[in-house]
Amino acid sequence: MTVSFLTQGPIDRDVFTRIIKALRTTGYIVLDEVFTLPQLQSLFIDLKTTDSEQFRPAGIGREQAQRVNQFVRRDRIRWLDASYEPVVTYLEWMEQLRLRVNRELFLGLFDYECHYAHYSKGAFYKKHLDSFKGNSNRRLSSILYLNPAWQSADGGELIIYAPDSDAVVQTVLPTFGKMVLFLSEQFPHEVLPAKCSRYSLTGWFRINATDSVTLDPLK
Fold first, then answer.
1. Where on the phi/psi map is residue 134: left (φ > 0), alpha (ψ -120 to 50), or beta?
2. Entry pTM
3. For residues 125 and 73, is the Cβ–Cβ distance under 8 A?
4. pLDDT for residue 25
5. Domain that holds residue 117
6. Whether the Cβ atoms of residue 138 and residue 104 lie closer than 8 Å to each other
7. CATH number for the domain harbouring residue 131
């Protein structure tokens, strides 16, 4: 049975206020406990029982410009949406966050896209921005880590860099239930190689970049 994120969580009832404050001041936040253990376990079980054939090598770029480049990234992903029942309640929680961010920060977030990500042993993702060159429709990135019993010796850290330099502003160990949110256009980041399989639910809030010339794609 899927656990409802709306009726049983998150743990921190004031978490949206904390997120808004952090985005306004620093542009990012790392949250150690957002959802309850049953909520996290339901997502982890679903991820682990998903047929591996549904995961595909992740590409870089978008639409016709997208390509697989294993010198840049080696994770495998499975796109998710509201038609996929196990994540519906998680998406409902993210929708609440979208509405709150728009109301208080006026970011104009239009929708949310996400996928499961699997980094096998040794996989990585080199330093990059989440907003595509010439297409800055991703505005707010989110990562929820789904790695039970993860230890510092397992590696796989997320490194967040300062917007205008190579200075490291945060090193994040991908422990079970930790969530990271940051402004997509401002913070370059990378994933260091892990010594065992590393899992997350990764997503982006987008604006609608449709104009008189270009129709904004969904992915």
1. left
2. 0.86
3. yes
4. 97
5. 5-206
6. no
7. 2.60.120.620
20 inside domain = yes
Q: How many domains are there within the chain?
A: 1
Distance CA 23, CA 98 (A): 13
Is 213 contained in some domain? no
* Domain-located, residue 212: no
Q: What is the pLDDT of residues 110-156, one digit of tens each?
A: 999 999 999 999 999 999 998 765 555 899 999 999 999 999 999 99
Mean of all residue pLDDT scores within the chain? 85
Spatial distance between the Cα atoms of 65 and 58, rounded to a whole number of angstroms: 13
pLDDT confidence band for 210 (50 / 70 / 90): low
- The answer to whether position 117 is within a domain reads yes
Q: Average of pLDDT values for 31-48?
A: 92
